[in-house]
Amino acid sequence: MDGFDFLPNEPIKAPQRDVFCEGDPRSSMGHPRVYLTIGPAGWVDCPYCARHFILMVAETCAGVRVGGAV
Ligand SMILES: [Zn+2]
């Protein structure tokens, strides 16, 4: 566990709604890559490893990104 700072239950902040997960690449507990889309709720869970993705980009109710990032 030297320098192993991965926290399975820590939410992953995604910059866009389309994300993918393939488990933890640093362990043998990975899984086939699965693509997920963060829904209106602003989060989605990976069905394989239950990792929690949250959308970190602020959007208006019209779905337009604000802030001008990227
Ligand atoms: Zn996963």
Model description:
- With 70 residues, this protein is mainly beta.
- The chain has a single domain, classed as q5lls5 like domains (HSP40/DNAj peptide-binding domain, Sandwich), CATH 2.60.260.
- Helices cover 0% and strands 26% of the residues.
- The protein is built from no helices and five strands.
- The protein has a three-stranded mixed beta sheet with strand order 1-5-4, with no helix packed on it.
- Bound molecules: zinc ion.
- Residues 21, 23, 31, 46, 48-49, 51 line the site of zinc ion.
Topology, element by element:
Elements: E1 12-14, E2 18-21, E3 34-37, E4 43-45, E5 52-55
Parallel strand pairs: 1-5
Antiparallel strand pairs: 2-3, 4-5
The chain binds zinc ion.
CATH superfamily: q5lls5 like domains
Supply the CATH class: Mainly Beta
Percentage of residues assigned to helices:
under 10%
Helix/strand/pairing category:
mainly beta
Strand order of the largest sheet: 1-5-4
How far from one another are the termini?
Answer: 35 Å
Tally the helices: what do you get? 0
**Morphology call:** elongated
Strand content: 25-35%
Instruction: Give average pLDDT, whole number.
Output: 79
CATH topology: HSP40/DNAj peptide-binding domain
CATH architecture annotation:
Sandwich
